From TrEMBL:
InterPro entries: DUF2789 (IPR021250), DUF2789_sf (IPR038086). It comes from Acinetobacter wuhouensis. It comes from the Bacteria. The lineage of its organism: Bacteria, Pseudomonadati, Pseudomonadota, Gammaproteobacteria, Moraxellales. This is DUF2789 family protein.
Length: 83
């Protein structure tokens, strides 16, 4: 059975803890600046970066969740722009 991608499954694919609390903590502690691309973030290793880039380029089922992760990791930057 092939699982539908989700934010929790994306975290799992990236080798990260994927409980709701772990995702919330990760997002809160890994905020990016407004001009920083998700895949250029210093906290990804090569395989994580390759996974993110390849699925964004393919624009497949994962890309929606990668976009969601990108938005969440830029939340503080968006708030600053709105202030």
């Amino acid at each position: 059975m092939n699982k539908q991608p989700s934010l929790a499954l994306l975290f799992s694919q990236l080798g990260l803890a994927n409980s709701p609390a772990a995702i919330e903590l990760y997002v809160r502690t890994h905020q990016l600046t407004a001009n920083q691309n998700l895949h250029d973030a210093p906290f990804w290793n090569k395989s994580q970066r390759d996974f993110l880039i390849s699925h964004l380029v393919q624009d497949d089922d994962w890309s929606m969740w990668i976009d969601e992760l990108n938005q969440q990791l830029h939340m503080d930057a968006y708030k600053l722009q709105m202030a």
